[in-house]
Amino acid sequence: MDLKEMFPGIEAADIKVFRSYDRKRDLSLDAQEVLAMCAMVSHVKAASLIEVGTSDGNTTLNLVANGAAKARITTLDLPEDWQGGFEIHVPEMLKNVTDRAKVGIQYRQSSFANRVTQVFGDSAKLDYGKLAGPFDFAFIDGCHFYDYVKVDTKNCAAHMEPGGLIIWHDYGMIEDVSRAVDEWSKETGIPVSIVTGTRLAVAKMPA
Q1: pLDDT value, residue 26
Q2: Which residues contact 182 (CB under 8 A, 6 or more apart)?
């Protein structure tokens, strides 16, 4: 669906984009996806956000910068002293781990750093009840292995505000992500829409 169909009035959203081209081709969100994410955050005036998969912090920065006036984001990434293991076995081809010294570097170098809570830990082991939820906006872009997408989705969905948005990246590009999202939608009865021209899948939690 076109973003304007999904969110009537979103074309009037004013957004800010930081470090526009400071991202890795084919691994990070592309420019159109960043614009769509920022517009959604701005349109719904998200105030309490969660991100699974910090990476270099570019998306973290742009999400919190476009939220409500005092928006805060909790962002998750693997432990700082990560030794190469996962709570769930992950095939080698789906391992994509950011250099531990560079996790969150883009938001850490910005004026928004004080609005970010960085949590280190395996997302399949974390107690989401101890995080700063409930959340009104969730972005799932961590490990793209099917079992991780499923558990990350389940954990985020259990700590969402009524009417909150869940966004997944790489839908339609990575089969494991697409299958996990489709199955979750079928199991819960919550519709998922794909933003035209992007790899973003969007679900709105029941009010």
Answers
A1: 65
A2: 192
Rounded to whole angstroms, the maximal C-alpha distance in the chain is 47
Going by pLDDT thresholds of 50, 70 and 90, the confidence category of residue 24 is: confident
d(CA 50, CA 39): 17
Number of Cβ atoms within 10 Å of the Cβ of 84: 7
Which DSSP letter does residue 156 get?
H
User: 16 is written with which tokens?
Assistant: 């800010």
Q: Name the strands in the sheet holding 160-168, side by side, starting at the edge strand that comes first in the sequence.
A: 116-120, 72-77, 48-52, 135-140, 160-168, 201-204, 192-194
* Contact criterion met (CB below 8 Å) for 161 and 205: yes
Identify whether the C-beta of residue 75 lies closer than 8 Å to the C-beta of residue 98: no
* Cβ–Cβ under 8 Å, residues 149 and 125: no
Q: Is the dihedral of CA 153, 205, 46, 58 positive or negative?
A: positive
Strand 72-77 with 48-52, pairing: parallel
Dihedral sign, CA of 157, 46, 178, 5?
positive
Encoded tokens for 104: 């969150």
Is 0.85 topped by the overall pTM? Answer: yes
